[in-house]
Design brief:
Strand content: 25-35%
Protein name: GNAT family N-acetyltransferase
InterPro entries: Acyl_CoA_acyltransferase, GNAT_dom, Ribosomal_N-acetyltransferase
Low-confidence stretches: none
CATH topology: Aminopeptidase
CATH architecture: 3-Layer(aba) Sandwich
Pfam families: Acetyltransf_3
Strand order of the largest sheet: 1-2-3-4-5-6-8-7
Domain N-acetyltransferase: 14-175
CATH superfamily: Gcn5-related N-acetyltransferase (GNAT)
Mean pLDDT: 95
Structural class: alpha+beta
Order of helices and strands: EEHHHEEEHEHEEH
CATH class: Alpha Beta
Helix content: 25-40%
Distance between the termini: 34 Å
Radius of gyration: 16 Å
Length: 192
């Protein structure tokens, strides 16, 4: 199994690696620690509530990976699962994908999501020929919007009150980056 290192402030070790069905108990424990925070804007904690649902969720992504239509990765900080990133959708034939993320409160502010999503976009663009990477976020989720900006994504607009979640209709913003833009951003970062 691969594990890619992520940089952290200080001496902490962080890794990005596949998140698989056999890790359902660890995934559930992680959701239990971050349930309230993670669930502020995304429904993942509402879906992962017990061992069978944790296994089922991870199994759905194993099936997506087998069908080349999605993937999920965990972020471990000092050997504890603290978050994750995913290709929520992945369509190589059309050249489009959507990335998503979540993080429990103990890991916030370390740049882990930005680094992990950067790795996903690099792979999608360089290895799989993806042309358009999307990021869909609630307009109220300032932390996620900051990540989109740090990555250099472009805000394309908002779908007003399009996402009913926990009794509130959220405006959902669409952010994206195209492969030529991503390569240019990466080149500028290296030379700057």
């Amino acid at each position: 199994m691969f594990a890619l290192p992520l940089e952290t402030p200080g001496d902490e070790t962080a890794k990005l690696r596949p998140l698989e069905p056999w890790q359902a108990d660890e995934f559930l424990a992680h959701m239990d620690r971050g349930r309230e925070y993670v669930g502020t804007y995304i429904g993942l904690p509402d879906v992962v509530t017990d061992p069978p649902s944790a296994h089922s969720f991870l199994r759905s992504y194993a099936d997506k990976q087998a069908g080349d239509s999605g993937r999920i990765y965990g972020i471990w900080l000092a050997d504890t699962l603290v978050g994750g990133v995913m290709f929520r959708t992945f369509d190589a034939a059309m050249g489009n994908c959507e990335v998503g993320c979540w993080l429990e409160p103990s890991a916030v502010g370390r740049g882990l999501i930005t680094q992990a999503v950067r790795l996903l976009i690099d792979w999608a663009v360089d290895e799989r020929g993806i042309h358009r990477v999307e990021w869909v976020v609630s307009s109220g989720n300032g932390a996620s919007i900051k990540v989109a900006r740090r990555l250099g994504l472009t805000r394309e607009g908002a779908l007003r009150e399009s996402y009913p979640y926990r009794g509130v209709r959220h405006d959902m913003e669409m952010w994206s980056v195209l492969a030529p833009e991503w390569r240019r951003l990466r080149s500028d970062a290296r030379s700057g």
